[in-house]
Amino acid sequence: MKKLILSMLLAASAVLTVQAQKIHIGAKGGLNIANLTEIDNSKARVSGHVGGFVNIRFHQWALQPELYFSGQGTKHSIASADRTLALNYINMPVMFQYYIIPQFYIEAGPQLGLLVSAKDKGGNLTIDVKDGYNSADISAGIGLGVKLPFNFGVYGRYNFGITDIYDGANDSRNSVGQIGVSYTFF
Fold this sequence. Notes:
The N and C termini lie far apart (about 40 Å). This protein has about 190 residues and is mainly beta. It has one helix and nine strands; from the N terminus they run αβββββββββ. The chain has one helix spanning about 1-20; strands spanning about 20-35, 45-60, 60-80, 80-100, 105-120, 125-130, 135-145, 150-160, 175-185. The protein has an eight-stranded antiparallel β-barrel.
């Protein structure tokens, strides 16, 4: 049974690849405005993201798997001291895009994030808090983008956490707004 399912998946992948009009590879990066849900007195942490993508286009539809580094987390206060919770992830979204016109698309899809580091910073003190956070984060993303001349693009996306990322009593989820630019190599 496993061999049959694997064979069917491979055949479907081959058919989709053959029917794809164009396959493009590119890089992307930009600004993150991140926060965590259910944390009192928290403020947005401004950070960034950078990585790459493969865009497989089928007429008005496209499938875009990505791999990128993303700075997330929040700013908060403990005993009147301002602190930053810096959560860094390697994110792997798979976005389904629909091109309303050839240059403009909307997108949505799931994302798996793997926690690389977690540090609570403030003043002269930095504490490694990675052990208190789950190593994986499942999110969903929605967004839009515009393809510009000379292989450039501009996009905006909002990723909202589906799974709890904190091992403690709070039910904290990632909430990340992104704006950025992309460049398609070929």
